[in-house]
Amino acid sequence: MAASESTPTREEEEGEQLEEDRFVSSHHPSAPPDELFDISTTVDPSYVISLIRKLLPVEPKNVDNTEIRGSNCNNEVVNSSNDSCKSMGIVDDPTKSDFRGEGDEDSHKEENACLSAGEEVWEECGCVLWDLAANQTHAELMVQNFVLEVLLANLMVTQSVRVTEICLGIMGNLACHEVPLKHIVSSNGLIAVIVDQLFLDDTQCLCEAFRLLSSGLQGGECIKWAEALQFEHILSRILWVMENTLNPQLIEKSVGLLLSMIESQREVEHILLSPLMKLGLASVLVNLLTFEMSKLTNDRIPERYPVLDVILRALEALCVIDVCSQEICSNKEIFQLVCDLIKFPDKVEVSTSCVTAGLLIANILSDVPDLASSISQDLPFLQGLFDIFPFTSDDSEARCALWNVIARFLVRVREDEMSASNLRQYVFILLSKSDVIEDDLFDHQFDEKKENESLATSGRKSDARTLALRRITSILNKWNALKDFCEKDMMEDYATNEKIGRLLDICHGHNISGTSE
User: Any keyword Disulfide bond (predicted)?
Assistant: First the structure.
């Protein structure tokens, strides 16, 4: 009995080996040896080549009787966190008929077993190549050995979202390197096929497609990528995905693509941003920001923090571009939302977003100064601005922006017309933040000298900071003049002569040094 059971086991093994061998087509040439092994790598080049070979789709002998299936034959979505490997398998047997008689059930099961084995081989190899493509040396070796041609062939025939995701993922990693990215651009029809993947409804495929396109727009041949994306139905699709998906990663990747357009060459801005604004980009970003702010206020989900940050970065970048600035800066809803973020109490969790919000508010007020009137009496907003300084120690531009907003705030304070009770609230906030003010002035006292190379930035920083400190001085002096007429308990809780004197000395010292320069 043992002997009879061992025979089918050997047959199954041989069948599986044959199935794997069928991935290698004899008419596909190997790369010349002199091109393959000159590259220094810790991974055996022949191993990389063997992996690429196992991704080859089989050219069918009989088109009518050939079926190409993916890891999910019913196109169901595969979770990217699933570590089990599935891949594309190929059924190609012209002798099979549709009629299934007695005994065909077992034959069908054997066929599916072979198919499953082939799928696993494909996905295992694809996942390894995906990882290897992150390394520049391996990536260059891969493109020299026709990996792009193999991936394109798979994208043209596969019905599997998992296969598509792996193909896009490999190319996304390849696109992070200059030479492989040039190969992608020069591969005939490949960019168009990549753009076509934007019309899939699978989250992971779309994430990889957006990532790949973002890398393309950041490369030296970004114009070709922009030209492939410029058509209205494609741009509308990008906006639709951006606005309608509930997946945080997909929102981040789709808005990240927008950010790549903004940060690319000026011609890319002209090709893509004007049409996007006409299609309602500003409205989409407002809706996204509103949603993320509601999530931050009510749920505080850490995985959504990067989404909020990339939306703010996109808005901040758009507000300084001519074709976009007026619509972004004049939008009161955007202004109110970012002001609300400044007042968010737990800034450590979203510190990067708060810094970006400060930059955005500064740019908005530069274009629409009258909006400052709506915040001139918002004391939590003033306190929130000072609370952001500890997160900007290495960002002189962000500190410049914060001082700019603080100055616009304080120039609208009418201390001579205030009651003592109202004035003391301003004094309390200023005194409570005196250490923050002193640290910023002391730690970065040489920033203006360093930034003299950029006259516009240096001037704005010097003028805004100096103006803000002069207004602080004026408010404190007014309080000193009133304190003799105030009740004693009002003074003991909120201000002492020592604290006021110290902050006045800080402001005076900076103003003198600023004047001497």
Answer: no
**Is 257:214 a contact under the CB 8 Å cutoff?**
yes
Cα 27 from Cα 5, distance rounded (Å): 38
Is 131 in contact with 137 (CB distance < 8 Å)? Answer: no
Contact 413, 426 (CB under 8 A): yes
Instruction: Quote the Cα angle for 35-38-40, to 5°.
Output: 135
Count helices and strands in the chain by DSSP H and E runs? 28, 2
Q: How far apart are CA 139 and CA 129, in angstroms?
A: 9
Helix H or strand E encompassing 394: none
Establish how many alpha carbons lie within 13 A of residue 268's alpha carbon, considering only the half-sphere containing its beta carbon.
24
Per-residue pLDDT at 457 exceeds 80: no
Given its phi and psi angles, is residue 269 left (phi above 0), alpha (psi -120 to 50 degrees) or beta?
alpha
- Residue 102 phi/psi, 5-degree rounding, is -65, 130
d(CA 154, CA 172): 16
Q: What is the pTM of this model?
A: 0.77
The dihedral through the CA atoms of 124, 126, 129, 134 has a sign that is: negative
Closest CA to 337 of 371, 392, 286: 286
Tell me if residue 246 falls in helix, strand or coil. coil
Tokens of 325: 């600035």
Distances (CA, A) of 275 to 76, 280, 346: 34, 9, 38
For the chain, what's the residue count?
A: 517
pLDDT in tens, 281-331: 999 999 999 999 999 999 889 999 999 999 999 999 999 998 898 999 999
Token output for 435: 């250490």
Beta pairing partners, 90 = 68
Predicted confidence (pLDDT) per residue in 255-270, tens digit: 999 999 999 988 998 9
* Surface-to-core class of residue 284, CB atoms within 10 Å of its CB (0-12 exposed, 13-18 middle, 19+ buried): buried
Would you say residue 139 has pLDDT above 60? yes
